[in-house]
Amino acid sequence: MAAPAPRAYKASRVGDYNGLTDLAQHVKRFENALATSDSVSDAYKCRLFRNTLTGLALDWLDEVPQGSIQSFLQFSEQFRTRFGTSKTTSRTIHEVWQIRQALDESLRNYVDWFSKMNAETKDTTDDRSTMIFVHSILLGELYDSFVDNMPKTLMEARPRAEKRIHLEDTKALKAKAKQEVTPPQTKKGEAPKTDPNTPRRSFRDRN
């Protein structure tokens, strides 16, 4: 897919695609960016498109046998076949309202999950999201600090949460360093403890 750039052609930035977000939107943005030029060859289109890929999408392309793609049409069809089911999920504010930090969940995991859910929610405002973020965390020092000095925006709340996360991570590392090499045995009939940093699989998990 190596090809020189055509003269007088200025590439437009269309954003990156990682294989997880809406494929149709990404392809549409890419095609619109090329619509103003008739001088772009298939080989150069493939090169441009490759430069927009990251993550899973780039990993997939790296596994495609070299020389097996003969045209941009073939390239785009193979790409749609592999990632055609990827589409941005639209959440409702009702789902975000249900988010709660579980008793056995780390603050890092909660913040990551809340951020993902909130980014996928269209019918919300920053004021509403901030209120949900604050009141969904467990009672503790961070919650108390929020109550004493309520953040007005998520941009104001996040750095305070991240400072607490750093403190939790530091304590966890020190605690791990003190543990014995052999992990403690689980007693008969006792359920194994959940890793507080285990990522959620759906919005219902850990609520």
From TrEMBL:
Source species, domain of life: Eukaryota
Pfam families to which the protein is assigned, alphabetical: Retrotrans_gag
Regions crossing the membrane: none
Annotated Retrotransposon gag domain residues: 48-127
InterPro entries xref list: Retrotrans_gag_dom
Region (Disordered): 165-207
Annotated protein name in UniProt: Retrotransposon gag domain-containing protein
Source organism of the structure: Apostasia shenzhenica
